[in-house]
Design brief:
Blueprint (H helix, E strand, L loop, with lengths): L1 E6 L20 E9 L11 E7 L12 E2 L3 E4 L16 E7 L6 E11 L2 E14 L6 E8 L23 H6 L5 E8 H7 L4 H5 L4 E4 L17 H15 L3 E4 L11 H7 L29 H8 L2 E4 L2 E5 L7 H7 L36 E4 L4 H4 L11 E3 L35 E6 L14 H5 L2 H4 L8 E6 L2 E4 L9 H17 L5 E5 L13 E2 L1 E7 L4 E2 L8 E9 L10 E9 L7 E3 L2 E5 L3 E5 L2 E2 L11 E3 L4 E7 L18 E8 L16 E12 L5
Parallel strand pairs: 9-10, 9-11, 11-12, 12-19, 22-33
Antiparallel strand pairs: 1-2, 2-6, 3-4, 3-7, 5-6, 7-8, 13-14, 15-16, 15-17, 17-18, 18-19, 20-21, 20-24, 22-23, 24-31, 25-27, 25-30, 25-32, 26-27, 28-29, 28-31, 32-33
Helix pairs in contact: 4-5
Length: about 700
């Protein structure tokens, strides 16, 4: 079988290459294609199945939970509607699929055809499309710099003064057409000292967290002499933020081979995907962290139990459970002490730990390269960096990291089940770029020897994704090798901007609601006015609502659900309803310092169809569907007005809230900060007092 495609969606190559919005206000992926019999043995009666996938989480894979449902397929010859599992060879088809409302940015897609009943016999077409933002969302980024403050890369652009305007970060950020990027910078020291009582709460105010960029990043400002409670709690808040599914970008030298990297090594090495064998957990299987009372010397803990076994200057063997990268082992050069300045290994590899060979004459130093291993959103959007046809470009001086990647699934035996977020459980690492060697070996004269040239480490061990990674991702977690040196390379800076956008896209985004003025209309589903307030006539002399607007005792509210996460777009969401209150005694929940009282509601209609009510779940929530309009009512007494207390509308309004989440909603004191998968959506209620006529 072959797929001959005569019409395919607009391919994204440069900013502005967008899909065109349809007359109904939606975006579609449109194809016209023919399935052909490659063997040319005649058309058979075999049926073929069509499935369309999108790479929503930016990992380069097209997985079953990323399938776009609802393909509309028509045969070209007679316009007959065809089921997605009933395609024939030799026929031409038009295939159309609606993109979920609210999706913005790059949309890598793959249309797959398989023989019915033979899922391993497939053909596919793939591409990259993009959807423009109607209202550009702002990505709120927090950059936590080193405690030493020696950043090579300030995302605000404060280190860009020597660069041309075209490659300054501020310019590259500004030129992104679909997102605004708002960066807050602070050192780790400021973060630890200024947010002692609200580390996680503070982090949760940002869409994305970036740690770095510097050489030998310091999370703790001085020499490590044992755990500090505030530093421990602050880094555990980063761990919690990461495991919640929010977007995180880790960078160069956060981990280290000794206690200069203690806090990151101990509490974040595994969530970065750098703990191949799970040794940051108790070796007895208690799932507790290695801490200061077990060993103040982080490297000795590993050497003693798992590390390099040696006798004098002779290496006997390597016990691989330590998880160190190959290059760091070579760098040690048979010594049990890290930091040896001798960078040549006895096995004839020139084990330059830095990509630039610093132990050679400066005239031979050449900028090194990074090479693309996989193609995906991060290599294409918003800036096109490399392709599989031209995968390599020169990069700023950097070096390998200290630990091997765990290329197995996140759902590993050592990770406590209670710490796994549903959004990232089971995600594998995708390595996008690896560190390379010099583009050509142009060393001459005496330097051209076996130990110095022919066995350059990066030349001998090419494209080693486990040891020499430069850029990789796993779910909502991204890592970049930038930070060893000041990044002034244009392509590398654009790749970094791509990484910011891809990391944001890979994170969990909360579903939301739009409040609607006139409920549901079949002819104008999305065109009904979206509102932020309602106005009700009110007679303050008797402290009651009047007229049909409130039906005397009931208030009607309509809203439409929106879930931009393609992975979860077909699943039910969960909703609860609240009024904002000022009195803690009235409240049933406190979220981010604000009090809410849960109220009872009755559903009247779903997409215009009258219903008796929806069934309330045991936890008090309601299951609601995506892109669906609901109308409900609640008793006016829930506002606290029809009684002895008169509300002063001249000073404040009332606030009604829909709390919407992708998973079950926690209750009571369990909720202090909304998870990344939930939103609180408010509607103001204003009361217009009746005029007193004389």
């Amino acid at each position: 079988m072959e797929v001959e495609c005569s019409l395919r969606p607009t391919e994204y190559r440069n900013p502005g290459d967008y899909l065109t919005i349809d007359s109904d206000g939606y975006y579609y992926l449109d194809f016209t294609l023919t399935l052909k019999n490659a063997a040319a043995v005649g058309v058979s009666d075999t049926k073929y199945v069509a499935k369309l996938f999108v790479d929503e989480d930016s990992d380069g894979k097209y997985e079953t939970d990323e399938e776009l449902r609802g393909l509309i397929i028509n045969r070209v010859s007679d316009n007959a509607a065809i089921a997605s599992d009933a395609l024939n060879l030799g026929s031409a088809y038009k295939i159309r699929c609606k993109i979920p409302e609210g999706y913005v940015g790059c949309l890598p897609w793959k249309l797959v055809f398989s023989q019915n009943g033979e899922v391993n016999i497939t053909r596919s077409v793939s591409g990259f499309s993009a959807i423009p933002a109607k209202n550009k969302p702002t990505i709120k980024v927090l950059q936590l710099g080193s405690a030493w403050g020696n950043e090579r890369f300030d995302l605000r652009g404060n280190l860009d003064t020597t660069l041309s305007e075209s490659i300054k970060l501020s310019t590259l950020f500004r030129d992104i057409q679909d997102f605004n990027i708002d960066v807050t910078y602070m050192s780790v020291t400021e973060y630890v000292n200024n947010h002692t009582n609200d580390y996680y709460e503070y982090l949760s105010g940002f869409d994305m967290l970036v740690l770095g960029f510097t050489d030998i990043y310091r999370y703790y400002p001085g020499d490590f002499r044992g755990e500090d409670e505030n530093y421990r709690n602050s880094v555990l808040a980063i761990r919690k933020y990461t495991l919640s599914g929010r977007s995180v970008l880790f960078t160069h030298d956060l981990t280290y081979f000794d206690n200069r990297g203690y806090y990151i090594n101990t509490y974040l090495r595994d969530v970065q995907g750098m703990d191949r064998f799970g040794i940051t957990y108790d070796i007895l299987g208690n799932n507790s962290y290695i801490n200061s009372d077990k060993s103040l010397q982080y490297e000795f803990q590993y050497d003693k139990n798992y590390g390099i076994k040696s006798s004098g200057n002779t290496v006997l063997y390597f016990d691989t459970k330590h998880g160190y990268s190959d290059n760091i082992i070579l760098w040690r050069n048979n010594s049990l002490k890290f930091g040896s300045t001798n960078r040549r290994a006895s096995n004839n590899y020139n084990s330059d730990f830095d990509v630039m060979p610093k132990d050679k004459d400066s005239s031979f130093e050449k900028p090194e390269t990074i090479t693309m291993i996989n193609e995906g959103q991060v290599t294409r959007y918003p800036y096109s960096i490399t392709s599989l046809d031209a995968p390599t470009f020169r990069a700023t001086n950097t070096h390998s990291q200290y630990y091997q990647l765990n290329l197995d699934t996140l759902d590993s035996y050592w990770l406590p089940k209670e710490e796994r977020a549903n959004e990232i459980e089971g995600d594998d690492i995708t390595v996008w770029y690896v560190i390379g060697n010099r583009e050509k070996d142009d060393l001459e004269g005496a330097a051209k020897s076996v130990t110095n040239t022919n066995y350059n480490y990066y030349r001998a061990i090419q494209k080693d994704v486990r040891n020499d990674y430069y850029l990789y991702s796993r779910g909502n977690v991204f890592y970049t090798g930038a930070g060893h040196s000041f990044v002034g390379n244009e392509k590398e800076r654009k790749l970094f901007v791509n990484t910011i956008v891809a990391a944001y896209s890979a994170g969990v985004h909360a579903p939301t609601v739009d409040f609607k003025e006139n409920g549901y209309s079949e002819t104008s589903k999305r065109k009904n006015s979206t509102i932020s307030s309602i106005y009700l006539p009110y007679d303050s002399t008797v402290n009651q609502f009047v007229g049909s607007a409130s039906e005397n005792t009931k208030i009607t509210v309509s809203f439409r659900t929106k879930n931009p996460n393609i992975r979860n777009s077909s699943k039910s969401m969960y909703a609860k309803f609240y009024m904002a209150v000022s009195d803690e005694a009235e409240a049933t929940i406190k979220i981010e310092g604000k009090y809410y009282k849960e109220i009872g509601v009755r559903f009247k209609s779903v997409d215009g169809e009258t219903v008796e009510d929806l069934v309330k779940r045991s936890d008090g929530s309601y299951a609601v569907e995506n892109y669906t309009t609901y109308s409900l009512e609640f008793d006016v007494n829930e506002l606290g007005l029809n009684g002895s207390v008169v509300h002063d509308f001249a000073k404040s309004n009332l606030e009604f809230y829909v709390r919407l989440g992708l998973s079950e909603l926690e209750s009571g004191n369990d909720v202090q900060i909304l998870p990344a998968s939930e939103s609180m959506n408010g509607l103001n209620i204003f009361c217009t007092e009746l005029l007193e006529l004389e």
